[in-house]
Amino acid sequence: STVPVLTIDGPSGSGKGTISRLIARRLGWHYLDSGALYRAIGVAAGWSDVDLADPAALVRCAFDTRIEFDESGEELRILVNGMDATDELRTETAGAAASAIAAIPEVRSALKERQRAFRQPPGLVADGRDMGTVIFPDASCKVFLTASAEERAERRYKQLKDKGVSVTLESLLREILARDARDAQRAVAPLRPAEDAVCIDTTGMSIDAVVERVLALLPAR
Ligand code: C5P
């Protein structure tokens, strides 16, 4: 495909989601929140009592779950099988379920084409763990965002608190470290920068500063 793609990968709380959405808006490009797909499948599996230890049933979920991104309002809403699941998807429970099912190779391949279908003119910003390594290896520009675990936990904490979710910083830090370790150590599509990715440590950086850094990497438009 000749449609340009900017991939933004990194661990949870690295700022991928916020940065990707802002850049997509600035460029007028489409946005793929690939983590939301894994979260949606985890949540849909929970709704229908599918066992997170039953790979075959989870693969069926990956094929059957309808996931829609509604960008018509102020905030992006995510519908799972027609139901607004935006808030449920953001919880760390959904994140942990996503990380468990994301380790199943067949679930990952079931989602491959669905993710690639987001590559539509005039361009795509794709955020996740394997956007630059597996899903869009030919992306025009690849970024890998990191930040200290403490800062990432704090960012998530603020995000969840703003949404009215009650969590403690300590438990969040523990959960984030466990999820990152699992994502980095799994056999398929582990969390790691693509060889041709530009790594940016966002610890102590403002959102605007990161957006500008990433935009500066794109070929002149
Ligand atoms: O980015 P987010 O925190 O929403 O992702 C939730 C989980 O989904 C991650 O911890 C990871 O296990 C999985 N994921 C993945 N590949 C992606 C995006 C997310 O394995 N491209």
UniProtKB/TrEMBL annotation:
Broad class of the protein's primary localization: cytoplasm
EC code(s) of this entry: 2.7.4.25
Domain of life of the native organism: Bacteria
Catalytic reactions of this protein: CMP + ATP = CDP + ADP; dCMP + ATP = dCDP + ADP
Annotated positions binding ATP: 10-18
A GO CC term assigned to this protein in UniProt: cytosol
Family membership: Belongs to the cytidylate kinase family. Type 1 subfamily.
Listed name of the protein: Cytidylate kinase
Organism: Vulcaniibacterium thermophilum
Taxonomy of the source species: Bacteria, Pseudomonadati, Pseudomonadota, Gammaproteobacteria, Lysobacterales
